Amino acid sequence: MAHSVDFNLPENMTIANIHSMHEEFEALVDKQDCDEVVLKGEQVARADTAGLQLLVAFVQATKERQINVTWDHPSEKLCKAAEILGVASYIGIH
User: Fold this and answer.
1) Is 51 helix (H, G, I), strand (E, B) or coil?
2) Is residue 15 pLDDT above 60, yes or no?
3) Sign of the torsion formed by the C-alpha atoms of 55, 57, 61 and 66
4) What stretch of H or E contains 46?
5) Where on the phi/psi map is residue 86: left (φ > 0), alpha (ψ -120 to 50), or beta?
6) CB 27 within 8 A of CB 61
7) What span, in angstroms and rounded, lies between the C-alpha atoms of 44 and 67?
8) The pLDDT of residue 34
9) Do the beta carbons of residue 7 and residue 24 sit within 8 Å?
């Protein structure tokens, strides 16, 4: 039975925590019964290029596996960083 998984993004989506986020994202896309991931981004205070590159790779992996990604209250800082780097529309953030 398919279901939705909520994922709380960290306060600092930076190169410093990219490794642990990568492992968590890999586990999400490998779940057999997951058909939607809700990214909760309200706590994100910092996001650098590495953090956003990881989000792009995660969204690509979910598309390949037909997993829907939605956003729940992405922070203004996260939205602004995604816009500056030109990835906002690709990752579906507003």
Assistant:
1) helix
2) yes
3) positive
4) strand 46-47
5) left
6) no
7) 23
8) 87
9) yes
